[in-house]
């Protein structure tokens, strides 16, 4: 009898009917003779509503208290789902993150899982119970409730699958799989039958919210077979695995995008050799995630430095730069909000030159100005005006032949 981990997102447990439907999907797995661990998100838009509530009271709410607040969302779902299963005659037990043994680093709002003590779950499974775990939360080494970052329930599921050596981990959501781009905004997006861990990792990191990127990291590191499919429609989903054999002809397999990006530019950075590292060490020590970095230094001149961050980090970043301006040794800084990042992803890029050039010419044809660029072996990212984001994604989707992917 194998362990399977099933994760149901917010829409899949958004109301009583959906919770009953989720209970049925769980029982299908149980009836196949599996030991079932279920991870759930908060119901519907609960997490967003809790964030709004907090923002009504405070512009920059304390991060510890935010974790305390947001972790309540998932607790509602675990208990209701457990009741729904009991009503259908099956014994289930709900666990919060700490009860499930999920230990995280001592960081609020975006903690990483560092260990899982799976004893309690294993004991419950051995007794025949379905175990339901609250996603997106854990307990830190100093006993505080932490959360794993928005979308973090996926990571709870995959981390549990790794700790329990599960046979599979299925992420049930409100779309039928991983698409070539977000189907909610890009009507011509096509479902992919399969995608590699590396490509999925880039897609997630670059804005495709269908999977939390740390979940993909765990899946790759522990070689966990991962599947994304719909909780409502019974159709084949997308498999995420090491090597993908289907749709090999696609050089680009996805277009990801994310708005709410700000570009910070630091002018007159003295002694850029030492100070460059000091700037980023200072930001990292304050948990600011810096994305694309561009530095420009001409002989004998002070350097200037640009980097992109999420809009949400602008307040903290500005404060840090003001506080450390003298220590870091620069003249002044400016910022530009209202930007977006649009990226193309595909492992076929490694062996096909000219992909970046085609991306730039496609954007140029649409009169879209590129403000920053970053590349890796399997992706090219550009920062552009947020107003032009969807137009950019649609034109790239067409230019790289993704409109023509056959849907199964
Ligand atoms: P859940 O609540 O189930 O975790 P999410 O909202 O976190 O659901 O993720 C599913 C959503 O991800 C979809 O509704 C879709 O709009 C979005 N999405 C973004 N990029 C993609 C993509 N490439 N393929 C599929 N869905 C995507
Ligand atoms: N409820 C959390 C969120 O909305 C975690 C999750 O759904 O994965 O971000
Ligand atoms: Mg999600």
TrEMBL record:
Its EC number is 2.7.2.4. Residues 264-347 form the ACT domain. It comes from the Bacteria. ATP binds at residues 7-10, 173-174, 179, 184. GO terms for cellular component: cytosol. Substrate binds at residues 47, 74. GO terms for molecular function: aspartate kinase activity; ATP binding. Pathway: Amino-acid biosynthesis; L-lysine biosynthesis via DAP pathway; (S)-tetrahydrodipicolinate from L-aspartate: step 1/4; Amino-acid biosynthesis; L-methionine biosynthesis via de novo pathway; L-homoserine from L-aspartate: step 1/3; Amino-acid biosynthesis; L-threonine biosynthesis; L-threonine from L-aspartate: step 1/5. The keyword Signal does not apply. Tetramer consisting of 2 isoforms Alpha (catalytic and regulation) and of a homodimer of 2 isoforms Beta (regulation). Catalyzes the phosphorylation of the beta-carboxyl group of aspartic acid with ATP to yield 4-phospho-L-aspartate, which is involved in the branched biosynthetic pathway leading to the biosynthesis of amino acids threonine, isoleucine and methionine. NCBIfam families: asp_kin_monofn, asp_kinases, PRK06635.1-2, PRK06635.1-4, PRK06635.1-5. Belongs to the aspartokinase family. This is Aspartokinase.
């Amino acid at each position: 009898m194998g362990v399977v981990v099933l994760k149901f997102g917010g829409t899949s447990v958004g109301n009583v009917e959906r919770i009953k439907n989720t209970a049925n999907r769980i029982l299908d797995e149980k009836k196949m003779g599996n030991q079932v661990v279920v991870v759930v998100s908060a119901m519907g838009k609960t997490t967003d509503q809790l964030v709004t509530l907090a923002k009504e009271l405070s512009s920059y709410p304390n991060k510890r208290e935010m974790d305390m607040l947001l972790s309540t969302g998932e607790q509602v779902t675990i208990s209701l789902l457990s009741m729904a299963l009991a009503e259908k005659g099956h014994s289930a037990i709900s666990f919060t993150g700490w009860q499930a043994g999920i230990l995280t680093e001592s960081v609020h709002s975006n903690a990483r899982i560092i260990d899982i003590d799976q004893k309690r779950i294993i004991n419950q499974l051995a007794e025949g119970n379905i175990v339901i775990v609250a996603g997106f939360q854990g307990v830190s080494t100093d006993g505080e409730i932490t959360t794993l970052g928005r979308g973090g329930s996926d990571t709870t599921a995959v981390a549990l699958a790794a700790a329990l050596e599960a046979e599979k981990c299925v992420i049930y959501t409100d779309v039928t799989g991983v698409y070539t781009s977000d189907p909610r905004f890009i009507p011509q997006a096509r479902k992919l039958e399969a995608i590699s861990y590396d490509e999925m990792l880039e897609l997630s990191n670059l804005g495709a919210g269908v999977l939390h990127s740390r979940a993909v990291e765990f899946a790759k590191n522990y070689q966990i077979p991962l599947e994304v499919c719909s909780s409502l429609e019974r159709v084949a989903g997308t498999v995420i695995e090491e090597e993908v054999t289907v749709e090999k002809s696609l050089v680009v397999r996805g277009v990801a995008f994310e708005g709410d990006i700000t570009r910070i530019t630091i002018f007159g950075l003295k002694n850029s050799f030492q100070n460059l590292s000091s700037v980023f060490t200072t930001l990292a020590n304050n948990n600011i995630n810096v994305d694309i970095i561009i530095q420009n230094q001409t002989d004998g001149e002070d350097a200037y430095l640009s980097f992109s961050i999420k809009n949400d980090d602008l307040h903290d970043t500005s404060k840090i730069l003001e506080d450390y301006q003298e220590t870091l040794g620069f003249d002044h800084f400016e910022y530009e909000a209202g930007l977006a990042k649009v990226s193309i992803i595909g492992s076929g890029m490694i062996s096909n030159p000219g992909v970046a050039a085609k991306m730039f010419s496609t954007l140029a044809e649409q009169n879209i100005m590129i403000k920053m660029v970053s590349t890796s072996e399997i992706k090219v990212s550009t920062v552009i005006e947020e107003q032009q984001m969807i137009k950019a994604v649609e034109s790239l989707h067409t230019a790289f032949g993704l409109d023509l992917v056959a849907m199964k």
